[in-house]
Amino acid sequence: MPATTRLSGEELARRARALEWLVFDVDGVLTTGLVSYLSQGGEMLTFDIQDGHGVKLAQRAGLKVAVLSGRGSGALRTRAEELDLDAMIIGRSDKGPAFAEFCARQDVAPERVAAAGDDLQDLPMLLACGISFAPADAVPEVREAVDCVLSRDGGKRAVREMIELLLRARGEWDGIVASFRGG
Q: Which pTM was predicted?
């Protein structure tokens, strides 16, 4: 089943071409939302490798990528470093003010940011950004509020789906695929 969007193809393309940043919630978007605590006191998060490759493809297309999370962990820091994220805002459950501060710090208008979130605390960010996304398993209130509900659940390639959708809307996907074919 494909993503469900409330935007016309023309409107999605217009907004997608204006984007400078992608901002992702972590728990429930980049991960399934499950957290495993290790007996040594650490925590383990699981990230999908294709979501990570999608992030690299977005960066290759000139988009900057950030995470905005109410929590922070060593696992998240490790993954953010591995992906060479452009910004990381952690420990901020007040997503509205945190998103506004992020936009001011990066000198970017909110409409030039696409964001993905899955739970109620993400709503202020999702309502303020240029294009909003939710994984298929987001809470109903978030699914009802966003521009696009993805067909995949959080942590299960929803981020990759979002990025491919945006790169196709921007007219960049075919060129990216061709570059891997040697063309």
A: 0.90
